[in-house]
Fold this sequence. Notes:
The protein is α/β, with parallel strands linked by helices. It has one domain: NADP-dependent oxidoreductase domain (TIM Barrel, Alpha-Beta Barrel), CATH 3.20.20. The chain is built from ten helices and eight strands. It has helices at about 20-35, 45-55, 80-90, 110-120, 135-145, 165-175, 190-200, 205-215, 225-235, 245-250, and strands at about 10-15, 35-40, 65-70, 95-100, 125-130, 150-155, 175-180, 220. It has an eight-stranded parallel β-barrel, surrounded by six helices. α4 (about 110-120) links the parallel β4 and β5 (about 125-130). The chain is globular. It starts with 10 loop residues before the first strand and ends in a 22-residue tail after the last helix.
Amino acid sequence: MPVYFQNNFQRAFGTWPLKDKVLVDALKCAIDTGYRAIDTAQMYQNEAETGQCIKESGIPRNEFLITTKVMPANFDDSLFMPSVEQSLKELMLDTIDVLLLHWPPGDGNIGPSLKLLNKAIDEGLTKNIGISNYTADMMRQALQITNYPLVTNQVEFHPLLNQDILLAASQETGIPLASYCSVARGEVFKHDIFNQLGTTHNKSAGQIVLRWIMQQEVSVNTMSTNPSNIRANYNIDDFSLNTAEMNSISELTSHNYRIVNKSIVPWAPEWD
Length: 272
């Protein structure tokens, strides 16, 4: 079973763009709610606060699944391992549970950074490795390069974006997908179907969206600073959408509304 689908790890609390007290308050609420998968990154500049919250929670370390990501600026041979060691120091961990490459390198040559990621396992800095923002072709290439399983490809995934190509690549390669921008930064709520299905299932529109993602065997990352939303985003495992409901939502993917594009992230690859 993929690591993100063990126990309750398929629902992760994302920490971008939170910092300082706002992050601490939200993350404490998330942990109290039951979240044990926590997602951060070097780019987020909040690993220290994240680590402090985890330490102060009093919950045994082995109950958490902590994910962080190496930023492309640290893909150089001389920078990669020191940056991971710094992440460990800030997170106050002996080892990272899941270490991701945050983006593919700008030149598209994924081999060198993947080999460094493998080395992080060899040196005991992380238990598992994965990728983020990789295209389907990059997923296939990565499978031929890595010495260890890639436990996820974290990508933008929500009902307004068609990711059928990535889903097919996930099935082909065995690299599971994980979502970010799971509710399209609120854009999904402009569509009545989520409220309608929420009424049917006695759930919120957001819970319907997240359930749609999970039923495609894609793990979910969500972020909120609102305690009621934090709790609602977690409580999505006590109902199911039927095939007709899933298909009705999937029709919205034809909008192909993408949030993370080259206008926001100039080094983004050419998306599928």
